[in-house]
């Protein structure tokens, strides 16, 4: 049993003052086989604590269906950290942001057309309570008061950036306490007036999130919280990337200098991120600064962190360790053996199958009057196909998707008319329906729900309707394609079917023990890749990311199946495996 708390201006662990030197490592962005490697490197850098978010949508992907296995085994991650001598900060607030799909909230919340998020809205609170009733009993035995490594738990995340419902924050606090969470509770917000005013909870420690100007940021925090230790809960020492934008980097010495400023002020610090990892599957989120903008996040969450996406120490790792060594006595640096990477060469796809021939194998048809959103049809992620027949002839008019969330390929009688993108309003389609009419198919891709800001009610698919000119089209057949199981695909006697989206299958033979590798997507346009049934994530020629990371535990000795779902086409259906990443 132990105790961790606040006395005066200090954190105190079992009666002794302690400065928390923490790093964010998200278990859900790392294959479990590599958790120990990343945590050992965190400790070797001089840190004494690991921090992690807890994504609700990973643990309850369907209402009432909970998952704490494999990459979702949060208790195992916490126990491992404790066994390695690390303290643990857990941030299980319903919302996490984290550039993660819907900020960690489950998509099925949006099946309720009246849903209100992150406030005293009874239906929302009922779902939170059900989730906490499943999650918190797993955390309780891991608390320091029960002999475990968890020293602190977050109530809500950057709430002052979103709202000001103090009754909601108090409800979450009281719910944690009632379920036995008896460790230090805290909140974290940006060092701005409205953020601190909206996000602080009476009797709960407030911490600050920022990437520079430590003295100014802590001065603002002190204005609202005169007593208690100073802590930067998110020191943004790097940054994330959006598709179509340059790869973000931050000079290692600059990041180290601002860290040194905080150390000189006597503050505790949590590096966000210490190790970013990967947004596997469809779990990368998106930002939306205004209704006219939509910025989806790439698959890599390298974040230009002290550890790279593959867990390798970077220049920033050594610069940060040098700063810690100026304030704390560190042992000789000892790192785990490097994880080998290998270039497995180039293989050709041996079979291909067009989507339209496979739809009924992947999804039962659903008939509705108007197009329905993914959430209304019980779908979280992936793609959705809407099909209808349009009578003709009709003069050429604009074909309007009202509204498209997020990117649509529009076909008439299997001829590609064009692409409509939420993020690019310049893309439009005009169409003259021929005599006898035409079959219209619209393939919509969910590119990630908004994870931050005022536009998080982000339902996917076609959110209102489809019209030609001002006339709406009714009578639709819909195919939900979460693509979470591709076993039903039939490649027998199938052929490439461009311009329609196409599945390509290839086999990689691995001799001996598998190594990390990277799938180079040069020559491919846009889509998603599966390795032995595991969704590696999205790729897109828009960049900056050019490779997909494949950790060795996803491979096996002998034959490995790769399936590429390509939306547009490739001149040569080949997969090239290289031994180093290319993030642009």
TrEMBL record:
Active-site residues per Swiss-Prot or TrEMBL entry: 158 (proton donor), 234 (nucleophile)
Keywords: Glycosidase, Hydrolase
GO molecular function: beta-galactosidase activity
GO biological-process terms attached to the record: carbohydrate metabolic process
Gene3D superfamilies: Galactose-binding domain-like, Glycosidases
Domain (Beta-galactosidase galactose-binding) ranges: 501-560
Listed name of the protein: Beta-galactosidase
